[in-house]
């Protein structure tokens, strides 16, 4: 089993290449990664033709460009975050569209580690599981799917230490420290493991810096160029966040945060838990502690007739606490949807049916896209929300953006990350966002 040629975590390619050409390959890779969110299927077709021996040189060039970008990312933490996320998205598409079953098995072993992956038969025999009825049923279901042509995946076993998310969500069959399931069930964990491996490769590539002056100069030039050219997906500038994005592009924010910011605008009050929820979120999308202090001082009615100095001594303490600057000095994250459902505010859970119906029909998300959501669809979302709020949120996302995420929306920042890619907020500096390119819902 050999790794596919597009897989960038293979041994570094031959570096006997002219520096100017190498930089162009890296910039081509950047353009490829930037274009992926708007039309992934087209990007794959244009840049990654189905494998033939004659394409070896093309794929080596893709890997060369990716390799230089890793060197650049090793010098800039923000670029590192962007590169890991973008390459993770590309990996997910190529794994699905351009990879044979044997290559997928090779990727499993490369990403999770040879010692952490076993074929089904190997696991069954080495662990004396030939009489295990659950394993037998998994195998029979797999064979039945193959005969019907309904499945292209395969059974695979991964050590539990590599897939904690699958353990906590009871995905797959846990037996003797191994998770047994169809290959398709591991895709989310596989992407996370790939991104972690890429991060390790970026960190280790620092050892190559300072060896050749021409490479160091190329890395420095690219780092400066990409810092201007690439807007980092995981962060917003403070000016964009408060002055533009929150008001002009509310569609990148999930419904819960839209509701909270709108409630604050209209009533100038939020309960303590709602303040925390919105504060965590604003922090993680890039608002500095000073900017968030100003934001709450200006918005909250509690601060009327008090000076900014007084505000800093009272409410200011709570905001600084969010950033780990007070109290236990813990750097808090945005809670995931399951935590929000039980301890904070989710419109799909905490609004009554009539209020939820009104919110879905008239909030900024629909207005931003100039769409009218049908009353029938809203009724479906409202009915489903009491049973499965994250599915309702994901379905709502699909309607707003005319496409379905690869996975169900389970975290507020997941909504931000996917939606911001779609509408092209992260475009060349001082240019207008790209017009959304719609594609068929997957």
Describe the structure.
This protein is mainly α. Among the domains are: 105-186, no CATH class; 238-423, no CATH class. It has helices at residues 19-35, 40-47, 56-73, 77-97, 101-112, 120-126, 133-148, 164-168, 187-204, 213-229, 238-248, 255-267, 272-284, 289-299, 308-313, 315-322, 337-343, 347-350, 353-362, 364-368, 375-385, 389-401, 412-423, and strands at residues 117-119, 155-159, 173-175, 178-182. Strands 1-2-4-3 form a 4-stranded antiparallel sheet, sandwiched between helices. β3 (173-175) and β4 form a beta hairpin. The chain is globular, with a radius of gyration of 24 Å. The model is unreliable at 231-243 and 426-442 (pLDDT under 50).
User: Which class of secondary structure composition applies to the elements?
Assistant: mainly alpha
Sketch the major β-sheet. Answer: 4 strands, antiparallel
The end-to-end span amounts to: 30 Å
In total, how many beta strands? 4
Strand arrangement, major sheet: 1-2-4-3
What is the number of helices?
A: 23
Shape from CA axes? globular
Helix fraction bin:
55-70%
Low-confidence stretches: 231-243, 426-442
Report strand %: under 5%
- Would you list the SSEs in sequence order as H and E? HHHHHEHHEHEEHHHHHHHHHHHHHHH
* Rg (C-alpha, Å): 24 Å
User: Can you give the mean pLDDT?
Assistant: 80
Topology:
Layout: H1 19-35, H2 40-47, H3 56-73, H4 77-97, H5 101-112, E1 117-119, H6 120-126, H7 133-148, E2 155-159, H8 164-168, E3 173-175, E4 178-182, H9 187-204, H10 213-229, H11 238-248, H12 255-267, H13 272-284, H14 289-299, H15 308-313, H16 315-322, H17 337-343, H18 347-350, H19 353-362, H20 364-368, H21 375-385, H22 389-401, H23 412-423
Antiparallel strand pairs: 1-2, 2-4, 3-4
